Amino acid sequence: RRSLPVYLALLTLLAGAVLTFAVWWTTARVEGEFWERQTANRATSIERAIEDRLDAYISVLQAGAGLFDASDDVTYADWTAFTARLRTSPVYPGVQGLGFAVFVRTPRDVERFTPGSALRLWPEAASDQRTAVVYLQPQNDRNQGATGYEMMSETTPAATVAVRKCSPAIRSSV
């Protein structure tokens, strides 16, 4: 008769352990699913924010292309007024500048956009396919140094230009 209380105690202990394990396992599974959903929702939210920002940047590029489509003679003053109105720094964070580059076949191609000033193309390139950044705003120290930059002198910019010859394009820093 003494063995019955021992068996009852062992059965109670075993039932408690099984119940504890079941509660732990269920809680861990539910919590894991909760955090998976939270992570997926956060990732979707970040993805949408990035897509929205890129759409905004593309709209700025298309607006710039529209300016040149609307006029055969966009001057530096026109470009400056256009970019100032966009307020790129506060409205489009991360944009270091908004520029316009031309394909250069003859010196006249550059002179058309920079009358009265000698724009130096750099670095020197031996290629017959050359480009030059002729308009770049805002005019800060970084951007002033990039004016005249020959984008075909590097592999990555050259690929960007070659693919998007007549289209607005987002570019990493010059």
How do the strands and helices of this protein lay out in sequence?
Blueprint lengths: L2 H68 L5 H11 L1 H4 L6 E7 L2 H5 L18 E8 L3 H6 L8 H9 L11
Antiparallel strand pairs: 1-2
Question: Short description, anyone?
Answer:
This protein has 174 residues and is mostly helical.
Average pLDDT for all residues: 86
Q: Count the helices. How many?
A: 6
> What is the overall silhouette?
rod-shaped
Subunit organisation of the chains = single chain
Characteristics of this structure?
single chain, 6 helices, 9% strand, mainly alpha, two-stranded antiparallel sheet
Explained architecture:
- It is rod-shaped, with a radius of gyration of 31 Å.
- The chain has six helices and two strands, in the order αααβαβαα.
- It has a two-stranded antiparallel ribbon with strand order 1-2.
- The chain starts with a helix and ends in an 11-residue tail after the last helix.
- The mean pLDDT is 86.
- It has 174 residues and is mostly helical.
- It has helices spanning 3-70, 76-86, 88-91, 107-111, 141-146, 155-163; strands at residues 98-104, 130-137.
